[in-house]
Amino acid sequence: MKSSDMLSREGILNAVNTTWAGREVTYFDLTDSTNTQARILAEQGAPHGTLVVADQQDGGKGRRGRSWVSPAGEGIWMTILLRPEMNPINASMLTLVMALAAEKGIRETTGQKSLIKWPNDLVLNKKKICGILTEMSTDQMEIKYVLIGIGINVSQTEFPDEIKETATSLYKESGELIPRSKIIAGIMAALEEYYEIFMKTEDMSGLIEVYNERLVNLGNEVCILDPKGEFRGISTGINEAGGLMVRLEDGSETEVISGEVSVRGVYGYV
Ligand code: BTN
Known about the structure:
This protein is α+β, with helices and mostly antiparallel strands.
């Protein structure tokens, strides 16, 4: 649904109340992909916390080479540039940190309580409202920068056939429209908070509890689609490394590491 909710650089900067997350904003009415634009800015030396936001993307990227539908006026399509001083091996956990921040930011600004589908989708009433795409550039085992792109379906009432069974929007579920800049500001504040906790240990130890409380898969039977073979088990939550622990039929626990695998509920997407 098109609404009168206009996005602008000034509107976002006025709403954001943080120390570093989203203090520098680049805004596009239309661009290919905010991840692509953030990469260009990163290569030009843009600082940690730079935020790239678009009202519409015509080349939105999803995970595993998929495209991400990003219509004008109906979503939050944004990428934050981070320059963490840490071991690149741990950087993929930043995706989990962003999922937590997005959940909190959305809840505090819209009242909608979404859940996390490990590792990094947010679901509302068992349908996807948010996806996250993290990309990284390294130089001799040092992180140059990390780009965390996040797409939130805000006010769509209809979705293309390929995703209409699994996708929804905040408006579709709640009937309420909240200004996008307010939601962006809420996510930036939450990201700053969770990022500081994460960086103390460079792992999820300080965030496990809050993550598992929001985990939609917790205690449920899940189906792990591993390229080496599919298997089922009961998900028992994430560990300090951000892996999903799954209890197998024989009682043993195995760690599922994000990347190639995908997790499904036994009865569908969640
Ligand atoms: C997924 O497949 O679930 C990840 C979707 C990530 C979409 C966002 S929208 C803003 C940013 N720019 C992109 O091109 N992709 C991410």
